[in-house]
Amino acid sequence: MYDANALRRFKADIFQALAHPTRIAMVELLRNGEFSAGKLIELLKLEQANASQHLSVLRSKQVVVGRKEGNQVFYSLRDPALIEVLDSLRRYFQRHIAGVRATLKKISKLEARER
Amino acid sequence: MYDANALRRFKADIFQALAHPTRIAMVELLRNGEFSAGKLIELLKLEQANASQHLSVLRSKQVVVGRKEGNQVFYSLRDPALIEVLDSLRRYFQRHIAGVRATLKKISKLEARER
DNA sequence: TGTATATATTCTATATTTCGAATACTCTTA
DNA sequence: TAAGAGTATTCGAAATATAGAATATATACA
Fold first, then answer.
1. Cβ of residue B16 near strand D, that is under 7 Å?
2. Which positions ≥6 away from A90 have C-beta within 8 Å?
3. Binning pLDDT at 50, 70 and 90, where does residue A6 land?
4. Is there a contact between B75 and B34 (Cβ–Cβ < 8 Å)?
5. A63 with A82: CB under 8 angstroms?
6. pTM, full prediction
7. What is the nearest nucleotide to A50, using C1' and CA?
8. Could you confirm whether domain B1-78 is CATH 1.10.1790.10?
């Protein structure tokens, strides 16, 4: 039997990989199939270096794989089963939607004030 | 329609809450019902302050709620739907179990060497 | 070969997370 | 009220994460 702690570190790593809005956005896009790094950058309006760093995190945590084709690198989810994880989180959110909405509203107001 | 970015920040926050082995361990224990802070500390062999800080993270991200009873605080999952998220991650891991095992083995060896 | 394009890496500054030690708070009970 | 138990918070140090600028690498193509 393997160390339960090591297993938890693995789980924590996966969560960590997803613990950034940009990386969530990337993974959500990749649900629909593969995208080149450049396309991800364009769609998400990111700095090239920043995007590359986030992709590097996703790669190192084995969340995505890159397929090199000529000049470009096409990324896709390493295992679509990850989508299930995201979907269950989505359901979790839907159950909390009232609370989430209230908080989103608060945030919008705060952000409006900051402008 | 609310800001997709704000929603992603929320999701990222939940993942962040779970992005630490100790917090994963706590949540996994709480699957089985509520535990006092002291019991969690005992079962997970944690420093009191450290445990309290991790619980504070889980509280602030709305993952757990504390119920005060006399001297102690009993924690439980705020919404058992979170279990579904953990379960789907578990399935994800099972699918990758071969790769995970190999990596765990590597880690065990490294750790053995470090001792 | 030289140049342009796509992507990755390195560097630096800053912010955030984590830990343990110390301290504070809040009940209970003597 | 004082003492003790259970928790939480604060503080300082170390580690890690993030962003943007600069640089490097790899491939295509003139």
1. no
2. none
3. confident
4. yes
5. yes
6. 0.86
7. D19
8. no
Domain spans, chain B: 1-78, 80-115
In the numeric block, which tokens belong to residue A104? 């989103």
- DSSP, collapsed to helix, strand or coil, labels residue A19 as coil
Touching check for A62 and chain B: CB below 8 Å?
yes
Q: What phi and psi values does residue A35 have, to the nearest 5 degrees?
A: -135, 150
Interface test mutation site (partner A, options B90, B92, B93, B104, max chain A beta carbons within 10 A): B92
Give yes or no for CB of B37 within 7 Å of strand D. Answer: yes
A102 vs B: CB within 8 A: no
Mean pLDDT by 10 residues, chain B (115 residues): 78 95 97 96 97 98 95 95 89 74 62 55
Q: For residue range A15-26, what is the model confidence (pLDDT) as tens digits?
A: 999 999 999 999
Residue A107, Cβ neighbours under 10 Å: how many? 16
Q: What phi, psi does A36 have (nearest 5°)? A: -75, 160
